[in-house]
Design goal:
With 355 residues, the protein is α+β, with helices and mostly antiparallel strands. 24% of the residues lie in helices and 30% in strands. The chain is globular, with a radius of gyration of 21 Å. It starts with a strand and ends with a strand. The structure holds pyridoxal-5'-phosphate. Pyridoxal-5'-phosphate binds next to helix 5 and strand 15.
Length: 355
Amino acid sequence: MEIRQEKASENELQSKPDESALGFGKYLSDHMFVMKYDEGLGWHDAVVEKYQDFSLDPAAMALHYGQAIFEGLKAYRGKNDQIYLFRPQANFERMNVSAARMCMPEFPVDTVCEGLKKLLELEKGWVPRAKGATLYIRPTMIATEAGLGVRPAKQYLFFIILSPVGAYYPEGFDPVKIFVTDKYVRAVPGGVGHVKTAGNYAASIMAAVEAQEQGYTQVLWLDAVERKYIEEVGTMNIFFVIGDEVITPPLSGSILPGITRDSVIQLARDWGITVQEKRLTIDDVLAAGENGTLKEIFGTGTAAVISPVGELNYKGTICPVNNGKTGELAQRLFDELQDIQYGEKPDPHNWVVQL
Ligand SMILES: *Cc1c(COP(=O)(O)O)cnc(C)c1O
């Protein structure tokens, strides 16, 4: 498919934000990639164009029945102004899994990768220079067909927008305090917890707000059936270092198969560390905390890369982790991943794509 390009005029371009105060998702770049789908016609009209409002029918089905999916990945500026992407193919393949689950049309990964590259070539200047700051990439697909009636829509819009971001957590790479919720659940077996669909995040907001009101950065989710097995933390996968083992919950269908999770498992195994994908209860974790074998807990995700956990609160019981300090493995993984993402270290698994 041909991808058209319609550049914004000089006077429509914004001035770039101050790199020391980017925050997360506050600023959006000047252009976007857009592609349309109509049943019978397939995907068409791929274009890199000026960032602008969409015109949507109030009955657009995404607004009513939630056929909306997204992805999140980043572009990094390395040495000599070289721009790198980290495993972009994996994000688009995962997005097609989300599309299939939500009865939305799959798209050609090659076209979308090419569209992203075209967009980034135009928006290179938006990739921050400050270390740790990146250009966050948000591919999205929504049902645009107007209609009231629950069924798969026949029209969709796929788009990619870009946002320069600073460090994900305001505290920086410091351990966060996590509230273990036994009141809310994120996903149920047979549901949509394994895909990045908008409704999952809407459903999670109340738990996050209540945790924040109590001074916690995020929520740790337990399984929906027995409310005892660990699932994820906020919008990150979670890892535990207990004794000599690194443990992370298996991809059971109710957790998101994180690309950072997969990369962390691979790196740790490369280093000769045993990683087990197995179910773990909150009681196991608290017991390990009590008997001194719990060494580290950390979350993994594109936005934060690695987020060390310094404290858990479960039903009022406080479980301190590594004296509230960043653990050795979390630090080593963070450094290694960053170095690979910025093109500063060898990339034995061919994860990095140069622009
Ligand atoms: C996106 C996401 C993750 C992390 O996935 P990455 O590919 O590592 O960014 C984990 N959990 C949830 C719920 C997510 O939405």
